[in-house]
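Intended use. Records like the one below are meant for learning the mapping from a protein sequence to its folded structure. Do not use them to infer anything beyond what is encoded.
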Amino acid sequence: MIQNNAPALVPLIFLFAGIIIPLAALKLRSSAYFIALGATLASTIVSISNVIFVLDSGPVRYFFGGWPPPIGIEYVLDPLSAFLTAVINGITLIVLIHAGKIVEKEIQEHRRVPYYALVMLFLCGCNGIILTGDFFNLYVFLEISSLALYGMVAVGDKKAPISAFRYLIMGTVGGGFYLLGVGFLYVHTGSLNMADIKEILPVLGTNPVVIVALSLMVLGFGIKMALFPLHGWLPDAYTHAPSASSSIMAPIGVKIGAYGILRILLFVFGIKFVTQVFPIAQILTWFSAAGIIYGSIMAISQDEMKRMLAYSSISQIGYIGLGIGLANPYGIIGAVLHILNHGLMKACLFLVAGNFRMKLGHSNIKNFNDTLRKKMPWTTAAFAAGALAMVGIPPTVGFFSKWYLALGTIENKSWILLAVILLSSLLNAVYFFRIIEKIYFRSPSSKQEEKEHQSRKGTEVAASMLIPTLVLAGALFIFGLLNTIIVKGVLMKVLPPGM
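Structure written out for the chain above:
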């Protein structure tokens, strides 16, 4: 009985948590954090059980109110949606464990309760986007997650409200493009259900309105995904948002846009349509390649660690877009695997940045030196692990997703794209190893600086912050060693039908 309702269960858990948090906080304000943590733990358990069930028994379809599509709204739990909900909920659980103390430091007390409610609504929207089989219902969840995220950014430092407003403008434009595309598609198909539209599209052929609809939908999700050159909102949002928000946005927020493009292009319109009839997949590939290089170059010139990681995210998003655009098995496996791998890597690195801010009061790269590894040995070790994974050093997770993407470029004989992947790894090494050099090899520039660092109280952050950071750092090696099991056991079943 529970498994029959599984597609709707996870979004409802987060929705109810978002409603209960403000009510419970009227009696006990500290309950907000524990309700958010409990809801995320419950959703993670349900999501993992959904993956096991779907891989064993096949997809599950759920009709809201008992109304079948195209009249009613359908939720679909298939290998792709089950895997991605488990990824985003599992990573968020670890981030929220870490968030307890950093939220107390960075967010004013009267804002903490609504903050945790917004996190729950954001996760409700993200899970809904992944699980829904209805294009308009997807738009509803897209707006829920976006509105919540704007608020999660706005409660950061002094520049955060401006960054949130810029994000709001760009996000609204993206949502508008997507909705226009859905409208055009509905007018010509008479349905909003993804499975129905998939069956109708071959009859319509190369209808110009359908091509316009697809272009608008991809453009809308491209803004949400921060795909180059639609990335303008991302660097400021990541930099000025609270550390907890950055740690959630980076591994999860933009991946929802990537999922939307993946689902629309390959599972609804189909590989033949997006590669032969209207080669939008190739366009996506080249924009992604440009983003990989652009993000890497911009990251090199940053002095603030969070901003460096923000530009790095633009580059890493490009890997996912590249894999989707390749539209072959290796490319798709590499893209979906990189959603997991980048989520682990970037969550780990943003937690490290949060640890630095907690103990040092900043995460400015210019002020890093070798006293940092002496005072925070475990946090700096976690940074080193994350850096190695981002560069793609085996056996870390970053190597294996890049490996599959490289195989995808070879299969398509896209040698320029292969060169882009190799070049980006070298650029990644430049901006990550300069921090490793400062932390592990460079002595303080003066005795005064040495005295300043020695005078700081304490060493490592509290266990509630350190343990999640180390768990993610360890996961970078564990999931790397288990990549064959993940690919064969899960990702081979994620591939679109007929591939």
